[in-house]
Protein: HTH-type transcriptional regulator CelR
Amino acid sequence: MERRRRPTLEMVAALAGVGRGTVSRVINGSDQVSPATREAVKRAIKELGYVPNRAARTLVTRRTDTVALVVSENNQKLFAEPFYAGIVLGVGVALSERGFQFVLATGRSGIEHERLGGYLAGQHVDGVLLLSLHRDDPLPQMLDEAGVPYVYGGRPLGVPEEQVSYVDIDNIGGGRQATQRLIETGHRRIATIAGPQDMVAGVERLQGYREALLAAGMEYDETLVSYGDFTYDSGVAAMRELLDRAPDVDAVFAASDLMGLAALRVLRASGRRVPEDVAVVGYDDSTVAEHAEPPMTSVNQPTELMGREMARLLVDRITGETTEPVRLVLETHLMVRESG
Structure:
């Protein structure tokens, strides 16, 4: 049997009735092609089963058409927290639409950061999406020194905003919404399980809690503030600490749904009813909140949209469509359920 000849760029051009250069521009995502011509080329590619030679394309474009999504946490936290699933989904969809793929990497220790920095600076990827950064993360400096473009997921702490691109959630507004809900439902001893204070989400959700209390003429009481790291186990410890310090607490705003779920279970174990004795509001509006017992009121943050926008900004930087830093802040809203 005669072996079928592998389709070539020239065969695609002939079938589409265009030049070889036009086919290259379509494959490389150039906007210098009319919609009708682009569709003709795509039809020819599909009909012939043409697969671009990625190695040859990389030599010409000096691009890999690959980006890295780097989560500055350990693997256990990445797969335990529902926040990351929405981000990964949004990133994947947006990159696929632009002809890019991505690799997922994690790292929190110094050794992991050093390894990651070497990989990211080694021309394996065209750009980097940075997620869940802490104040001391060295990766942005490594990328700057290597000339690799990147976009933050979340406003970075300690960095002049005008110098960087990021997509963030309105964490202050979300913290304010959660606390206002508890105030409006008649609660007066409102505690919070805040997130880590070396991350912008932890800092700003606590700020929103404080602002809501002060706006209502209520005192900000440090004894009603405990801290976790967004995980379930940290929420258990924080809720127990709050009950030891303030047994008369009548409401809790938890800065993540996992910490909110932990609060629900600790309260139940202590003999307190939710929401009759203590109301609870979480943050994420994840399936954790939806299936909690009772179902948990929670702040909805558009994580899939956040992932999409992060990917869009980065690809625009890689392709030269934008050169200036871009900053986006996405709105939150409250999903009211039975817990508060």
